[in-house]
């Protein structure tokens, strides 16, 4: 490629992507036919932009050239949205999230909200995204039980929920069960913030019978709670109990887990890959 109009920060990002993830070069590209970023095929431009975060696309990449702006407005680009709170850069994340959701034109299926989030935003996402299947809230302390519950009833296809280090209570857990009958994956990570108990394990067992993947990092459940989950969640295949030190997976309980659980992470297993 002879020249580049890409901002240096984006150029570094794009060049850092592992080359095997890029589509194969066409003969024209290998021969150097494309002399600028604006001449790249649409599918390659889309591949590049999808590897950038939502903030990078909205604030930088779409301003590179007309063709990049056109691709950045394609609803298919916004089926998954990941946005972290970038400190000291002055972004209005509420507006940016809503803009990104609007660009999906109802096609959003997966969204991650890190270090930011309000009841109003979560409800806007739910109202605008009836096809949403996966929601990840990390350190979203301003999302309340009431706002979360109000949003859930708008998501009939919802299948996967992760709440890590937030302020949601067990009442919200009950709302998940009531509003999301198709839920397959539940991840609750509250170590150091809020400890759950067997009451919550019993709520999961009684109402979330279709679960296949359950993560309870740092949970305060006991053997009784785990047995209740195993009794009532027959489809459970992946169980993550890292840092759940009140559970003793030995004897009969170990045999039960071995019989039904394909992937089991025990309380004392390594947390080297834990992302928080």
From TrEMBL:
Residues 34-81 form the F-box domain. Pfam families: F-box-like. Transmembrane segments: none annotated. InterPro entries: F-box-like_dom_sf (IPR036047), F-box_dom (IPR001810), Leu-rich_rpt_Cys-con_subtyp (IPR006553), LRR_dom_sf (IPR032675). Gene3D superfamilies: 1.20.1280.50, Ribonuclease Inhibitor. PANTHER family: F-BOX DOMAIN CONTAINING PROTEIN, EXPRESSED, F-BOX PROTEIN SKIP19-RELATED. This is F-box domain-containing protein. It comes from Brassica oleracea (Wild cabbage).
């Amino acid at each position: 490629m002879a020249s580049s109009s890409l901002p240096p920060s984006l150029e570094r990002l794009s060049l850092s992507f592992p080359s095997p993830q890029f589509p194969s070069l066409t003969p024209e590209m290998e021969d150097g036919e494309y002399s600028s970023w604006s001449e790249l095929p649409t599918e390659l431009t889309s591949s590049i932009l999808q590897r950038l975060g939502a903030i990078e696309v909205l604030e930088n990449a779409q301003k590179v050239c007309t063709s990049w702006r056109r691709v950045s407005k394609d609803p298919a680009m916004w089926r998954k949205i990941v946005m972290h709170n970038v400190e000291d850069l002055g972004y209005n994340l509420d507006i940016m999230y809503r803009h990104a959701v609007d660009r999906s034109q109802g096609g959003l299926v997966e969204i991650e909200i890190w270090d930011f989030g309000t009841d109003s935003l979560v409800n806007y996402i739910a109202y605008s995204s009836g096809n949403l299947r996966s929601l990840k809230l990390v350190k979203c302390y301003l999302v309340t039980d009431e706002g979360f519950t109000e949003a859930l009833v708008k998501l009939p296809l919802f299948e996967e929920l992760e709440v890590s280090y937030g302020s949601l209570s067990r009442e919200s857990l009950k709302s998940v069960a009531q509003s999301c009958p198709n839920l397959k994956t539940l991840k609750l990570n509250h170590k150091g913030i809020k400890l759950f108990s067997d009451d919550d394990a019993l709520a999961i067992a009684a109402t979330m019978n279709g679960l296949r993947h359950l993560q309870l990092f740092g949970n305060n459940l006991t053997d009784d709670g785990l047995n209740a989950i195993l009794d009532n969640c027959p489809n459970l295949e992946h169980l993550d109990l890292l840092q759940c030190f009140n559970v003793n997976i030995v004897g009969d309980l170990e045999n039960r887990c071995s019989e039904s659980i394909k992937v089991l992470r025990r309380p004392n297993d390594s947390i080297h890959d834990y992302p928080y």
